[in-house]
Recover the amino acids of this structure.
């Protein structure tokens, strides 16, 4: 067994540097790597290029890095729900690259799986296609998209073992499962770190080979962004 | 009389068929789930990673790990499954989703759609819209026929940045059901009590008006 | 709930025709769609193009279709362990297209996920690359591979429910999980068909949307091709 | 004296490092698993879809659903996981596998490898070999220095159809450990008791022989 567990969030982030490209799992506030984000927000590092579906809220998730002006370039799909981000975007304090959500997902998956580039129909005929190769297959038009290249992937899973095997929960699987292994170094925080042998090999969502470091987070707020109930 | 949002959703719900996998966008499309005809078996997909979207939870049953693409808390059904975003958009791109319903700022008579960006205004991103319009088997747009200034949203040519090209099959507005054909917009149904002249007036693109335009049946 | 269950193997195969392209899950004899293959071997249909990692043994798996000379073209990765197949190949009674195993897997996955084509390094500089586009990304050479197009995918899973949700077991997941949904019609046989609600949504390997028809197979031989024991 | 197959495997096992994910081909490479040095923690991957390959099962414990890429029954370990073939080759193509050991018919001084096809003879297919050689971080070839006719398998240029180009890092044969360098083959170690002249004679490609060529340490 290859032991991937590290002591805490600090050791998990060793090697991070100014200007690096970070992939961050999560959709909205669901499945975000809470402890890793908080640690980076407290650090002196800045000028990150971040790849993430969304940008958190004003006071949580990626919003913590945005408030501290640590993000220079944001690659995302939907960047609403965060006023400070909007302010920085309008003032051109932050570069924003908007990407169709499925293309963003597939570019992460491609990076993980060693596919340098692929064709997708999403964005053909729109400004997303500008500067990209267009090609027809079976008389439908597609554009060429390349895999991302990132330095760190910051991942949140539900359970994990010391070998780095992961299980996600509910829709928190979202971008976590595909970004895991898509960067030079993949760091995973879990709600529960279990002993090797406790997870059924048939139920592991992400094998430990895609994980470089794993630790159990100190605490989880698991915030709900939009509480909607059957009887309001 | 022009339809309200719930009536638009109700009309769209008539398009639902047995065995459909359906993706609903935010706004009016979300309301379609409230009007699934009796006897129709279908599943709703949400592109953040769930198939078999259940109703909102009872108070105390909400789970931060179970949300839809609008980031609202939801519940699961017996048939539900969770998956990652690459698989989710594989379902969409691979044409496994039968029907996508979404809102729009403009649709033109070539079936082009614009619903993500207004130049000069704050842009929040396309989310999954570009993937959905590029790949769904069938796309229905739910929107008002005109904007608040009374300007037609059914254009000869979209003036706003596009979300997708030649992809919309049908538009359901407060005034009419309009199909996209190789010849242009085709007026299929009118809202109860709405005059054809009013629809023609509210449509900027070329509108083909057949001799008989039935009223929508909403009850 | 959309009910995907069909009565038996006969109804599961409705619509199959001479000359169709079939994808078949399994690796060696592990996870092969036993009941579907037997049913086709008894049928009058022939001239199939088959896409499968291997070709079974002389007396089981795809070997049953080969003995009946039902396969005109075989797309596979490793076609050993079957003497009758070798005979037909040497006599040019069967066309064989050999494909790197990872490329075969990714071409199936691409078909399932609506990716028309992708680049891979496998086969660059070899005869596999003949006639294919070569392109450099980050100064490494890759070749362009296109998604498969198939009429039927024949899949074996361990458990499934009426909505078509699937769970695989062990290394029988192999090509089954990726071919599922990669053809116009996907037919799945399971060892155990359970009621909707019995499977945990977190443990489903393949959501029902990728399945068109599902049934419980009559019997499973689950043959072992090479028994290897700790103390021989 | 020339090494036997187990000794070749034993020498290759010295290349194993802590934390390595390793894929072993059939033949001599499989034997490497028997010689993992004490204290080295690693995992074996089998490309049909398992990470953490365990030993062969005890009689009665064999499971038809748990096999390796050679189709042999195996067991799992506490750290094992199962996955589909696209994920498995994603591990390979994405350079998550640290070391691949495989056999070959020929290797040339450019690091090209031929191990899947002999024209005119029955061809069984490349299996996962082309994916493995195109993507592994480090590739070690295990083979005899010459074939049964005494013809060198370390070529100036492969004459057989290639499996991959410029990918082999190191060759361990019954006679020597040879590295591939931009200048050609480089003689790194010789089998105990084997004379350098014998290795030179058995090597068709350009072989760089340094002043001091240590003997392999096998015990």
């Amino acid at each position: 067994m290859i032991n991937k567990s590290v002591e805490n969030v600090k050791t998990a982030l060793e090697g991070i540097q100014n200007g690096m490209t970070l992939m961050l799992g999560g959709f909205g506030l669901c499945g975000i790597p809470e402890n890793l984000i908080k640690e980076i927000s407290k650090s002196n590092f800045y000028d990150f290029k971040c790849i993430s579906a969304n940008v958190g809220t004003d006071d949580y998730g990626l919003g913590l890095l945005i408030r501290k002006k640590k993000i220079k370039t944001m690659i995302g799909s939907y960047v609403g729900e965060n006023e400070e981000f909007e302010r920085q975007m309008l003032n051109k304090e932050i570069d924003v690259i908007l990407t169709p959500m499925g293309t963003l997902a597939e570019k992460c998956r491609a990076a993980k799986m060693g596919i340098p580039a692929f064709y997708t129909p999403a964005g053909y005929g729109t400004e997303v296609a500008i500067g990209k190769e267009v090609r027809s297959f079976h008389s439908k038009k597609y554009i060429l998209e390349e895999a991302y290249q990132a330095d760190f992937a910051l991942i949140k899973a539900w359970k994990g073992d010391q070998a780095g095997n992961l299980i996600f929960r509910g829709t928190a699987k979202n971008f976590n499962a595909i970004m895991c292994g898509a960067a030079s170094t993949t760091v995973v925080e879990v709600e529960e770190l279990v002993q090797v042998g406790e997870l059924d090999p048939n139920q592991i969502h992400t094998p430990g080979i895609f994980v470089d470091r794993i630790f159990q987070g100190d605490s989880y707020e698991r915030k709900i962004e939009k509480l909607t109930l059957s009887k309001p | 009389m022009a339809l309200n949002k719930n009536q638009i959703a109700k009309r769209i719900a008539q398009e639902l068929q047995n065995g459909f996998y359906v993706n609903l966008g935010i706004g009016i499309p979300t309301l379609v789930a409230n009007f699934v005809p009796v006897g129709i078996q279908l599943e709703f997909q949400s592109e953040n990673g769930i198939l078999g979207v259940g109703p909102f939870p009872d108070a105390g049953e909400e789970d931060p790990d179970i949300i839809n693409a609008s980031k609202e808390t939801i519940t699961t059904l017996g048939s539900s499954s969770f998956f990652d975003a690459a698989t989710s958009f594989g379902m969409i791109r691979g044409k496994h989703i039968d029907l996508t319903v979404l809102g729009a700022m403009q649709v033109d008579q070539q079936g082009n759609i614009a619903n993500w960006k207004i130049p000069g205004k704050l842009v929040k991103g396309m989310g999954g819209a570009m993937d959905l319009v590029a790949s769904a088997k069938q796309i229905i747009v739910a929107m008002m026929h005109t904007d608040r200034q009374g300007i037609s949203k059914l254009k000869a040519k979209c003036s706003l940045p596009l979300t997708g090209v030649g992809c919309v099959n049908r538009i359901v507005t407060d005034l009419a059901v309009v199909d996209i054909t190789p010849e242009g917009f085709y007026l299929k149904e009118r809202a109860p009590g709405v005059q054809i002249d009013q629809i023609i007036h509210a449509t900027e693109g070329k509108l083909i008006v057949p001799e008989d335009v039935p009223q929508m049946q909403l009850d």
Summary: Helices of chain B lie at 5-13, 28-31, 85-93, 129-135, 196-202. The longest strand of chain B covers residues 76-82. Chain B touches chain A through 51 residues (CB under 8 Å).
